[in-house]
Amino acid sequence: MIKECEYHAAHDLKEALELAEQFGPRKRFLSGGTDVMVRLKEGLVKEDVLLDLSRVAELRFIREESDVVRVGAGTTHMDISTSPVVRQYGRALALAASRVGSTQIRNMGTIGGNVANASPAGDTIPALIVLDAVVSIVSRAGTREVPVIDFFTGPGRSVLAPEELVAELHFPATGPGELTGFGKLGSRQAMTISTANMAFYFRIGKDRRIAEARIAFGSVAPTVVRARKTEQLFCQLSPVLSWDAIRVAAQMAWKEVAPIDDLRATAVYRKEAVVGLLAEAAYEALASCWHER
């Protein structure tokens, strides 16, 4: 039986913030509803007030301004995955959004919900981390900015206060010589929680070596993991396309992830999965600028 909740729909951001302050920890935000409705049916929602943000037009936008890509929290995964702006300047995020659930879920679910839920399996989170994204958090008191890597404090937990909401995600637009990618493994390609997911960013220097790398893995720890030792190995690669060398660099991920056994996969399987996901996606991306040996 679905729990009965008091329902309020905000018509603009000002009203949303007023209601968020009024109800505080009693409320749970609802936008696309793809997660909240499932949790309601399973009896996992503790709050007794649902605050609907789906009508708040100020939260739904994608734009590029002064080499910064800005995505409103109310923007759907479908909008992100098909956006020419995101596909050009933040490819990893477009790929991640295209792999969220089914077509119906991508049409309903929002990036703000994916981030605010703080699930270590959230598909957009590794992409946002490697893109160096920042979360804009708003309340009636004002706006504060938090790097997305610092936003999560544990499974389902974040730095959000009860009166705050995620308003926007923004990141530097990638340009020539910057490669990004995303990979996901689940029991099915659609309508599945990630067994493991991964995103990367490579900046290629003038000598064709990787001058900077950012790699993040999801669903392999209590929060998404930034794989800094693995990044260092990729920066040491010779600028020649070699599957064996890329696979060896990717294997450092074994030491940087700490997954658990659960109903979806064993810890060992997840470790192998992240290595394979990274190696395959990196090889494909680097093939565009390196020559085969």
Structural overview:
The chain is an alpha+beta fold. The chain contains 12 helices and 14 strands. The chain has 3 domains: 6-52, Uridine Diphospho-n-acetylenolpyruvylglucosamine Reductase, domain 2, CATH 3.30.43; 57-172, Uridine Diphospho-n-acetylenolpyruvylglucosamine Reductase, domain 3 (2-Layer Sandwich), CATH 3.30.465; 178-286, Enolase-like, domain 1, CATH 3.30.390.50. A 5-stranded antiparallel β-sheet has the order 4-5-10-6-7. It has a 4-stranded antiparallel β-sheet with strand order 11-12-13-14, sandwiched between helices. A 3-stranded parallel β-sheet has the order 1-3-2, with helices on one face. α5 (91-98) runs antiparallel to α8 and α11 (243-250) packs across α12 (267-286). The model is unreliable at 188-192 (pLDDT under 50).
Write the layout of secondary structure elements.
Blueprint (H helix, E strand, L loop, with lengths): L5 E4 L3 H11 L3 E4 L5 H6 L7 E4 L9 E4 L2 E5 L4 H6 L1 H6 L1 H8 L4 H6 L2 H6 L7 H7 L3 E6 L2 E6 H4 E3 L2 E2 L6 E8 L5 E8 L10 E9 L5 E9 L6 E2 L1 H8 L7 H8 L16 H20 L7
Parallel strand pairs: 1-3, 2-3
Antiparallel strand pairs: 4-5, 5-10, 6-7, 6-10, 8-9, 11-12, 12-13, 13-14
